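Q: My labmate handed me this sequence with no annotations at all. I'd like to see what the chain might look like in three dimensions before we decide whether it's worth expressing. Could you predict it?
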Amino acid sequence: MHEFVLLVKDLFSAGGFVMPPLLFCALLLWYGLGYRYWTLRTSHSKSIYDLMDSYSKGAGQNASSIIELAIQQAIGLSNKNTKKLRRHIDELFYSSLKEIRKFSVTTKTIVVISPLLGLLGTVAGMIETFDSLGSMSLFTQSGGIAGGISQALVSTQTGLAVAIPGMLFHSMLHKKQLKIERELLQIKELLCTRAYVSDQQLTN
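A: Here is what I predict for the chain of 204 residues:
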């Protein structure tokens, strides 16, 4: 453990002033990705039609995903013969949509700015390198040529190490988010169409 702490300390020292912001970005990124992964998890293997039939028959099972909970709540509204069903379902699904979109912008922003922070550290390291070359000092208090090159490489590497895995996970979770949004829209359209057909049959 002590060796790990020393390794991290050396890494921070080598990477320069951009390392603390990069560490903060990494922590916030993976917190956001973890939150989104937990929120967007889906365990249903049935189609939307099958799930709606199952809940319409009052199967009574506990909802295990955000989609099943949405179906359960929307069918409850529909069974009450709620007027202006589409508007009420929109209001009902708003909280679900807000939840599945949480941290989406944050994680995307961090993925974009992390390489830029690494690039900023690279520029700072190269400036130090050229300053040392100008004064012909191989080693100085700030590190000299060797310290400048080290800072340039370490900061770039750290920025990419934060951004690349984050970009892959963000992309995967964004696809899940879009899938859930499509399913919520499908649920709303099916229920509203079913309610409209029932109203027409009663009228006739």
